[in-house]
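Worked Example 4.2. Consider the chain below.
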Amino acid sequence: MFYKDWEPIYRKILEDFNFQVENDKKSADVLNQLLKKRKPFSIKELEDIITGKEVVIFGAGPSLESSLITHKKDLVGKLKIAADGATSALMENNVFPEIIVTDLDGKITDQLEANSKGSITIIHAHGDNIDKVKKFVLEFKGNIVGTTQTNPKPYENIHNFGGFTDGDRAAFLAEHFNAKKTYLIGFDFDGEIGRYSFSANNDKKLKLKKLKWCKYLIELLKKHKQNIDYL
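Applying the procedure from the previous section yields the following structure tokens:
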């Protein structure tokens, strides 16, 4: 998805959450400046890694842990993408994520470890994580890519592949680079929040609202591509 297609959805999200586009831009500015201090991972290489592959995306819902055990054989030979906090569950179960999509809400030590071992880390800037972007981005010594949910055109080091939450952004990433098939694990929309979401109790209402958007956006992708299934 390109920004011209994403912008109408983004505007609805801003309105629904009463977010300010200026704050998203501020965070993107910070991330862009930090990425100037190092060489971001090549988008062409990222495309080559995803295009034509079968992809498994791991959300941080409560079914994640049991699903990792149940579907372990199904993961063989597939490209594995972890949505933020799901990285910790994968690392604990000796499943290596080739790609991590994160806004830095999860357990950073696990993401840093995976990154140091080769995980390409897609770091997202939005209005609520400016402090985390400043604190953690340069701690990632491996391959990283910067993303934003606003217009990426002003930034040489920032991209927008579509999506809002870590989980659906991972699905939009796979769609943008023409994955052959995308399977979703640990995506739960029934009101329960998994422990790998690392969400504080007072964030529950906001988290549930974001999950509704995640479900809506994934359903949009499913209608468009028809190559996305839940495992």
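The longest helix spans residues 204-225. The mean pLDDT is 95. Compare this with Example 4.1 before moving on.
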